[in-house]
Amino acid sequence: MRSRSLRPLWIAASAAVLALSGVTPVQAGEPPAPVSDTLAALLSSASGTVPVTALVHGTDLASAESAVRSAGLTRITSFSRIGVVAASGTADQVRAVRSAQGVTYVENNDPVRVYASTGTTATRALEARETLTGADGRPLDGSGVSVAVIDTGVDPTHPAFRGPDGASRVVANLKSLCLQGTATGCITRLPNTVDTDTLSLGGHGTHVTGIAAGNDLTLPGGTRVGGSAPGSKIVSISTGAALVVLGTDAALNWVLENHRAPCGAGVSPQACPPIKVINNSYGPSGGGEYDPQSATVKLQRALAAEGVVTVWANGNDGGDGSENLSNPAGQDPTPGIVSVASYNDQGTGTRDGTVSDYSSRGAADVRQSWPDISAPGENILSTCRPYLVICSTGLQPVNGPGPLDLGTYNVISGTSMAAPQITGIVAQLFQAKPDATPGEIEHALKSTAYKYRDGAPYQQDGPYTSSFDKGTGLVDVVAAATALGAGPA
């Protein structure tokens, strides 16, 4: 959004920088490129020498690269497919780059936070695995699909991620170093024995990954655990515990460039299937207005065009419908971009529970801000090491299935836990119909959702009935997979 109040400050502060930097200005009389709301707020009060990191959007990549160089900014990395360059410099240099030729938008490197808060009975994901088969004739467990999780990292040695052959199902273990990135790229491959969650002092990513794709196991005492898609492969991209837009967008960009062969050329799709869905359990505190010009939106739209579904946690800011508290990126109406509210199954697997109090609501009068669907996110038992930060907040540590797996599961709540339920379910649905489009997957989810009654009433919203607090209702995997052609076991 263009900031009218910013323009006079920009002119006063940046004239000298333009003169000295060699920036090729836009035509006389043309206004500088618009900026994101948070960057406008920062520049309106920042002195000229304050350090700033920004995402510079150009008409193409060459224009963005040229503008960054001419403004004196230091290039960090680029997103070549969408013509965006991430760069750091002073506030005055960022003000100056707005008037370079070819610059269309400048975006702040906003901080984002993890949505910290098994649900497969309420979603019917477990029932689908036990009663339905995919197009490959195998039980509907996500086989033949890789799920990508952008988060704090993963412990690939956790028993929940061990394949039938004893090897980890984490087929690509990646670490984003984008805050110190170079022109050669900022996503680094690590051995699949390296615990990136411990490196980032996290734990959130391992818990989330277990919900999406953890093995179906029975713990001592008879408790059954497991994710929606235990037959899938896992691609983990660790952005560290201090998430910012630059790091997470770089991870989305990596998936855009590598989703067809995430383990690299020469590795068979049987060993390392294409990525078909990405989990994003993070976002800005307090939600916010959807920005169709952001790099995040451009990346996820490009991913949808190439057959990849993007799943977002809707946020943990509650609300009553009087304002929009939904995660901005999840508000994208592009088919195949799905936002998830948190449902409380009361710890029993009931399908007639409640919307979690903390689950972010959209504005009642802005339907685009409403979540798409609900999934269990309250009191979710999943993979967690007790020495990791987020896991230590859980109040119900449970030992794993082996004699040395002590405290390897814990209970946490949040829309962070609801989103990966859907991520794993999307893997199940792609197994049911491998050639489905992201739009067909979203339609199957929303058109078959179970209409639990708690909260706001459902209203007609295009082809569906939906609500500002829980979307189209509680996901129903059996119904969605059957609609896509899954057969009986």
* Percentage of residues in strands: 15-25%
Number of helices: 13
Find the structural class using helix and strand composition. alpha/beta
Estimate the global geometry from the Cα principal axes. globular
Oligomer: single chain
Distance between the termini: 52 Å
User: Largest sheet, if any?
Assistant: 9 strands, mixed
Pick out the low-confidence regions. Answer: 1-23, 180-184
Q: What fraction, in percent, of the residue positions are helical?
A: 25-40%
Per DSSP E runs of 2 or more residues, the count of β-strands stands at 23
Mean pLDDT: 88
Q: Radius of gyration from the CA trace? A: 22 Å
Task: Write up what this structure looks like.
The protein is of the alpha/beta class and 489 residues long. The protein contains 13 helices and 23 strands. The chain has helices at residues 6-21, 37-45, 61-70, 91-97, 120-123, 125-131, 196-199, 204-213, 245-258, 295-305, 415-432, 438-447, 477-483, and strands at residues 51-58, 74-79, 84-90, 103-108, 113-114, 132-133, 146-151, 170-176, 187-190, 217-218, 224-225, 233-238, 275-280, 282-283, 309-313, 337-344, 354-355, 373-376, 380-383, 409-412, 459-461, 464-466, 487-488. The strands form seven sheets. Strands 7, 8, 9, 12, 13, 15, 16, 17 and 18 form a nine-stranded mixed beta sheet that branches. Strands 2-3-1-4 form a four-stranded antiparallel beta sheet. A hairpin with a 2-residue loop joins strand 21 and strand 22 (464-466). Helix 1 (6-21) crosses helix 4, helix 11 packs parallel to helix 13 and helix 12 (438-447) packs across helix 13. The N and C termini lie far apart (52 Å). The model is unreliable at 1-23 and 180-184 (pLDDT under 50).
